[in-house]
Design a protein that fits this description.
With 399 residues, this protein is mainly α. It has 3 domains: 49 residues; 94 residues, DNA polymerase, domain 1; 176 residues, hpI Integrase, Chain A. 47% of the residues lie in helices and 10% in strands. It has a 3-stranded antiparallel beta sheet, covered by helices on one side. Helix 2 packs antiparallel against helix 3 and helix 2 packs across helix 5. The chain is elongated, with a radius of gyration of 33 Å. The N terminus is likely disordered.
Length: 399
């Protein structure tokens, strides 16, 4: 028997559809309504979207368009949540548990200082690539550096990736915007004469050994200030890099290196061992015999980088006539000295703590101007001079 169809004007029961296709029904007042699932909110509660119309066909068309939009990745509905609300939730529930305190603090700074003031009030359901591009352009107009603008982009992108996992977004609007380009600062190491002058003028300084280590091991500033005496074997001339000092919102803390390559052992040259022995004797004379740190402040506590720069580095740098030189340039100088003397690149990678050899080569390849000439001369040496060949030279002359 054929199923009876409702007469015109007669109330209709809900029209069932397939999963994800939504549903259509007619209300008691005669108005038609269509509903479709649009995911869940930040608390995991199911969210639905409704469309109303005077006819069943009208709401059916709206429902079809919405379903198509979701399939195409253009439908976004996250209620009243704004970009600022998302970033706050992301920092609290995703970034903080999974990132180091230093990284989280940097995310927080970027969010509070640059992103929220520009687009924090935009509804998450309304955010589009144009908003991201306008934010980056405004930051550039405000003279915000390229590195910071790039970090703003990266921060937003990572937050939106998490929002997609939470089903608050269907696609990442940052994918429609190019990340700001940062011009890489070319490494300019000290010359051999400048390095020697720096060591000479720092001889009477309390932190002379820190300058020696920076130039002979390439250790980072944080690694130097986090160095413990128990990590140094002066008898065998070996140093272990186990910690690095960082400052977060005025608080100093020791952290372990990010990678296995960062946790490394370095063989010390004799001049570094000598400087450390003298440094330890001075430290004992200062009454810091029980201090575990190699380069503490005057009270035996962790040394703040800002204090070192203000009271030590700025004065030594001026005395050595190295204005404009950064302390980190001593690390580059160490790599340059090793490269210029033919030290194997793999060994330099291990000493510097780079995770890959490509990082070492990408950073310091321009410091090897003679490498290509040496490579070219290899063919002359092994294959003979131009126009000749090893086979021709070995040919027995006819009598």
């Amino acid at each position: 028997m054929a199923k009876k169809q409702p007469a015109d004007g007669e109330k209709s029961k809900q029209t069932r559809r397939g999963k994800g296709e939504g549903s259509i029904s007619q209300r008691a007042d005669g108005l038609w309504v269509a509903r479709i699932d649009i995911g869940t909110d930040a608390n995991g509660k199911r969210r639905r979207k409704a469309f109303y119309g005077k006819t069943k066909k009208e709401v059916a068309n709206k429902l079809t368009n919405e379903a198509s939009a979701q399939l195409n990745g253009t439908a976004i509905d996250s209620g009243k949540m704004s970009v600022g609300d998302l970033l706050k939730k992301w920092l609290a529930e995703s970034a903080t548990p999974n990132c180091s305190p230093g990284t989280t603090a940097e995310y927080q700074r970027i969010v509070d200082s640059h992103i929220v003031p520009k687009i924090g009030s935009v509804k998450l359901s309304a955010i589009r690539p144009l908003h991201i591009q306008s934010m980056l352009s405004a930051l550039e107009t405000d003279k915000v550096g390229a590195r910071t603008r790039q970090y703003c982009y990266v921060t937003l992108h990572r937050a939106f990736v998490v929002a997609m996992r939470w089903q608050l977004m269907i696609r990442n609007p940052c994918d429609g915007v190019d990340s700001p380009k940062v011009k890489k600062r070319q490494v300019v190491p000290l010359t051999m004469e400048q390095a020697q002058t720096l060591l000479k003028v720092s001889e009477s300084n309390r932190f002379h050994a820190a300058f020696v280590l920076a130039l002979t091991t390439g250790m980072r500033q944080g690694e130097l200030f986090g160095l413990h005496w128990e990590s140094i074997d002066l008898k065998h001339g070996i140093l272990q890099v186990r910690y690095s000092l960082e400052e977060i919102k005025g608080q100093l803390r020791l952290k372990e290196p990010k990678s296995e390559a960062g946790r490394r052992q370095i063989a010390l040259p004799a001049m570094a061992v000598k400087a450390l022995c003298e440094h330890k004797a001075k430290q004992l004379a200062e009454g810091l015999a029980k201090c575990p740190y190699v380069f503490p402040d005057s009270d035996g506590g962790l040394l703040r980088k800002c204090s070192f720069h203000r009271w030590t580095w700025s004065k030594v740098r001026t005395a050595a006539k190295l204005e404009g030189v950064h302390f980190h340039d001593l690390r580059h100088t160490s790599a340059s000295i090793m490269l210029s003397d033919g030290v194997n690149a793999k060994a330099i990678q291990a000493i510097l703590g780079h995770s890959t050899i490509s990082m070492t080569m990408d950073t310091y390849a321009h410091l090897m101007p003679d490498a290509q000439r040496l490579a070219a001369s290899t063919f002359d040496r092994l294959l003979g001079k131009a126009g000749g060949s090893p086979a021709a030279k070995k040919k027995t002359p006819q009598k």
